[in-house]
Amino acid sequence: MLSNITIGQYFPGNSILHRMDPRVKVLLLLLFLLEVFLFSNAVAYGIFSAITLVMMLLSGVPLCMLLRSLKPLWWIILFTFVIHLFSNPGTPIATVWLFTLTWEGIQMGCFISLRLILLILMSSLLTFTTSPLKLTDAMESLLSPFRRFGLPAHELAMMMTIALRFIPTLIEETDKIMKAQQSRGADFTTGNVMKRLRNMVPILVPLFLSAFRRADELAMAMEARCYRGGIGRTQMKSLKTGGIDYLAIGGFVILTAALLGIKLST
Amino acid sequence: MSIELKQVSYTYMPKTPYEHKALDAVSFTLEEGSFTAIAGHTGSGKSTLVQHLNGLLHPENGQVLVDGTDLAASSKQGRKEAMAARNKVGMVFQYPEQQLFEETIAADIAFGPKNQGIEGKELEERIKESMELMGLAYDEFKDRSPFQLSGGQKRRVAIAGVLALHPKYLVLDEPTAGLDPLGREALIQTICKLHKKWKLTIVFVSHNMEDIARLADSVIIMNHGKMAIKAAPQEAFMQTELLQAAGLQEPAMLHLLHRLREAGIPVNDNAIELETGIKAIREALSDAE
Ligand SMILES: Nc1ncnc2c1ncn2[C@@H]1O[C@H](COP(=O)(O)OP(=O)(O)OP(=O)(O)O)[C@@H](O)[C@H]1O
Ligand SMILES: [Mg+2]
């Protein structure tokens, strides 16, 4: 039932992408996404698609799992596509009631949908190949320069780590409580919305109770071990930037240069 | 009438890197009126196994039949019968006190019977009866909040909530975990009473070999998802090698008798309970004199 949810959808492995420094991955991803928005000519999109495809193959994550990450946003992609089909002025092809289908519309629709698909695939590649803990470490490290402006980088990262740590526990607990109430004849699958919401009470009350208890215990345990926040703390596995990362950065610089060249020459 | 498992296999998270085969072709029959213990090392699949008994998990391969009805039936008629069959099996989870949610104890116990459509006088009767069974005085406890109770009392309330469903089979997953010795003993006596007086068929998961030896009439030993032994405790505990392979130890009494025998003292080493063990040693002593 709930046991099939994997948090942060991390897919363990040892591919090049897995071994990259998460900070570099996050930064390059952000820049890549920015470029996808900035360079919107056909050649650039060809290159972006090719890069995404190569990355997908390099990651060692099964293709079907990667494609599944598109599923929740499938409707949005389709919706955007259809809207663009009919909302662009240009050479008309057909007219349906008030709407005119244009040649430019089809082009634009394909473009925007491809953009969305690339955004989703690339971002999920990051979460597929980076464990949630590494991701929070990267976040802390990337945000730490902003500490002097009062941003609690360490605290934010710690909060995220704790949340990530406890999500599987809470799912497990929900699963157990749900099964226990089901054994007492509770039914979570039939009835209208109101009835279903009311049926959630026997799950939510025990779940909240135990979540509060856990939070309390954790706070106590952290204090007992002299946790005092971020200043001066070191990490067991500190992040290192290595050869692969410089290669990736180099590749990215070349890519950007090429894209700029193409844009300026047309 | 019985619960029958035929070649039941179950895999957690199939087709992912986290895939784990928790049950592997497990077959056995639990006769009505029997008292069966399930033992095995941590992660051997005991909890997974018992969750099959009332259809909370459906086997990936194989069948679970409760009084002849397949719990995983998919036809419309079959589903209805499966629901009815599931209701015959009451399930008490590990740490059942965590599932309490109502404002009063009586309301919490009423949750199950209410779901079955029982109301009014009969509902009250059931609450009263199951509370008394679990040793909770009805008038004293019914209006109290379950969250003000001690751990052991909470557990009693939770078990009462399952008993109020009037199950024919009662499955308990490590019911005594985390209780103090007195609380343990009281709970075990209650379970015994349920078995003897109320004719409930009991299945209980336990790590305690002494408890298994004196309570169960049959024991199932699980090892890495497979059933290693199903036999009467007396016979099961004689298979020392299989037991050790499954990460378990024979009851302390039996261990002592074995050691005595190894040391050359001719005791009768088939006693698994404390009393019979003492008797065996006494006999050996008087023989020696
Ligand atoms: N929801 C789940 N998702 C994935 N794997 C699971 C899940 N529940 C149990 N497992 C795995 O299945 C195996 C059997 O688990 P199970 O809970 O049945 O063991 P157990 O014999 O009850 O152990 P214990 O004595 O600790 O309660 C374990 O290795 C466990 O890691
Ligand atoms: Mg268990």
TrEMBL record, chain A:
Regions that span the bilayer: 26-53, 73-99, 111-129, 243-262
Pfam families: CbiQ (PF02361)
Topology within the bilayer: Multi-pass membrane protein
Keywords: Cell membrane, Membrane, Transmembrane, Transmembrane helix, Transport
The keyword Transport is assigned to this record: yes
Localization of this protein: Cell membrane
GO CC annotation terms, alphabetical: plasma membrane
Any one GO molecular-function label of the UniProt entry: transmembrane transporter activity
Family the entry assigns: Belongs to the energy-coupling factor EcfT family.
Quaternary organization: Forms a stable energy-coupling factor (ECF) transporter complex composed of 2 membrane-embedded substrate-binding proteins (S component), 2 ATP-binding proteins (A component) and 2 transmembrane proteins (T component).
Task of the protein: Transmembrane (T) component of an energy-coupling factor (ECF) ABC-transporter complex. Unlike classic ABC transporters this ECF transporter provides the energy necessary to transport a number of different substrates.
Protein name from the UniProt record: Energy-coupling factor transporter transmembrane protein EcfT
Organism: Selenomonas ruminis
Gene of this entry: ecfT
Automatic annotation (TrEMBL), chain B:
Enzyme Commission number(s) from the entry: 7.-.-.-
UniProt key word Cell membrane: yes
Domain of life: Bacteria
Membrane topology: Peripheral membrane protein
Subcellular location, record wording: Cell membrane
Domain ABC transporter intervals: 3-249
MF-aspect GO terms: ATP binding; ATP hydrolysis activity; ATPase-coupled transmembrane transporter activity
Pfam families on file: ABC_tran (PF00005)
InterPro entries assigned to the protein according to its UniProt record, in alphabetical order: AAA+_ATPase, ABC_transporter-like_ATP-bd, ABC_transporter-like_CS, ABC_transpr_CbiO/EcfA_su, ECF_ABC_transporter_ATP-bd, EcfA2, P-loop_NTPase
SMART domains the record matches: AAA
Keywords (A to Z) from UniProt: ATP-binding, Cell membrane, Membrane, Nucleotide-binding, Translocase, Transport
GO cellular component: ATP-binding cassette (ABC) transporter complex
First and last residue of the signal peptide: none
Enzyme class: translocase
Its biological purpose: ATP-binding (A) component of a common energy-coupling factor (ECF) ABC-transporter complex.
Family note: Belongs to the ABC transporter superfamily. Energy-coupling factor EcfA family.
Self-association and partners: Forms a stable energy-coupling factor (ECF) transporter complex composed of 2 membrane-embedded substrate-binding proteins (S component), 2 ATP-binding proteins (A component) and 2 transmembrane proteins (T component).
Record protein name field: Energy-coupling factor transporter ATP-binding protein EcfA2
